[in-house]
Each structure stands twice: as structure tokens, then as C-alpha cells.
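Hypothesis: this fold can be encoded by more than one sequence.
Test: take the C-alpha cells below, design a sequence, compare later.
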């Protein structure tokens, strides 16, 4: 049941609006608008009671606040479906919850990195170049470049391990 004021008649500069209340009774309002703006203002300032899942609210704004949506959502639901039973319940088929593009581990020549970004950082190349190098369509030159970056990384790791080992062996 619609509970909006609807323009029902225009007569000699006077506009008659009619609204069907929740209890079935009709309510009318008459105005002499000076412009379209004042017609809009009349509809905008009149509180329209609405019922959502058995609870009667004094206005669309109050109902919207109570169910956590915007007043526009309520009026759209009324226009599209004619009922407010599902407003504020979320989507019918919501998408996956949480991060869908979460970092996935990547393994190169037996060494596993937490993500592509992590691998690119450790290999000291930019993420875009790294992605191009690991692409299945990568050229032979790209694959060789990736291997060179990987060898530099392994060499750097070995050097750091040896340094740490020497520091532990040196007397204080």
C-alpha cells in the first residue's frame, strides 16, 4: 500500500494531493504552489508513516535510521517491490566475505615468498616487472632477467648468513 502523497488534481492554480494511510483512510492536502519547488517541498516535509516487518515507524527517515539504510533505499524498495519486508537485510546473494584478493604465496626455484609483492621487494624489482617476468607469456629474456634477480637475492642471503655466523663466532 502506497503511503506517499500523490498529485490527484489541478484546478485553477490549486493542487490537490491524496495519501492513503496505513489504516486505509485517505488524507488530502491542498496547496497553491507558486512553483515546482513548493510542490516538492510539500511532499518532502510531510512525514509518511511506514511499516517494516510489523513495526510501524512515524516517517521514512525514522524507519531508515532504525534499519540502518538511507531514506532513498526505503522509497526505492517501495517503488520497485511494493513491500518493505526485505529492506535493511542486505543482499540476497552477498559476495564472499573478507579479502578476496589476499596475498597468496609464490614459489620460485624452491624458495617460497609470502606474496608477489614480497617477492618483488626481496628481489629488488618493481611489482609490475616481476609480474611480467613470471607471466606464462614471458619472453626468454624476461625469464633470464628473473633468474639473475633470484641469483642476486640468494647471493645476498648467503652473505648475510655468513656475516651473522661470523658475528656469533667472534669473541666480544
Amino acid at each position: 500500500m502506497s503511503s506517499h502523497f500523490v498529485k490527484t488534481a489541478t484546478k485553477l492554480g490549486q493542487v490537490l494531493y491524496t495519501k492513503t494511510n496505513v489504516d486505509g483512510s485517505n488524507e488530502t492536502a491542498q496547496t497553491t504552489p507558486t512553483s515546482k519547488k513548493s510542490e516538492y517541498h510539500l511532499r518532502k516535509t510531510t512525514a509518511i508513516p511506514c511499516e517494516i516487518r510489523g513495526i510501524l515507524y512515524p516517517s521514512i527517515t525514522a524507519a531508515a535510521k532504525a534499519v540502518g539504510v538511507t531514506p532513498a533505499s526505503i522509497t526505492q524498495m517501495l517503488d520497485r517491490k511494493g513491500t518493505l519486508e526485505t529492506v535493511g537485510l542486505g543482499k540476497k546473494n552477498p559476495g564472499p566475505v573478507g579479502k578476496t584478493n589476499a596475498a597468496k604465496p609464490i614459489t620460485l626455484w624452491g624458495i617460497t615468498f609470502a606474496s608477489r609483492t614480497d617477492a618483488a621487494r626481496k628481489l629488488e624489482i618493481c611489482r609490475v616487472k616481476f609480474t611480467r617476468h613470471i607471466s606464462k607469456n614471458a619472453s626468454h629474456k624476461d625469464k633470464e632477467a628473473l633468474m639473475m634477480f633470484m641469483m642476486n637475492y640468494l647471493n645476498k642471503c648467503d652473505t648475510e648468513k655468513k656475516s651473522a655466523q661470523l658475528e656469533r663466532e667472534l669473541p666480544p
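The radius of gyration is 34 Å. Residues 36 and 83 are 29 Å apart (CA to CA).
Hypothesis status: open.
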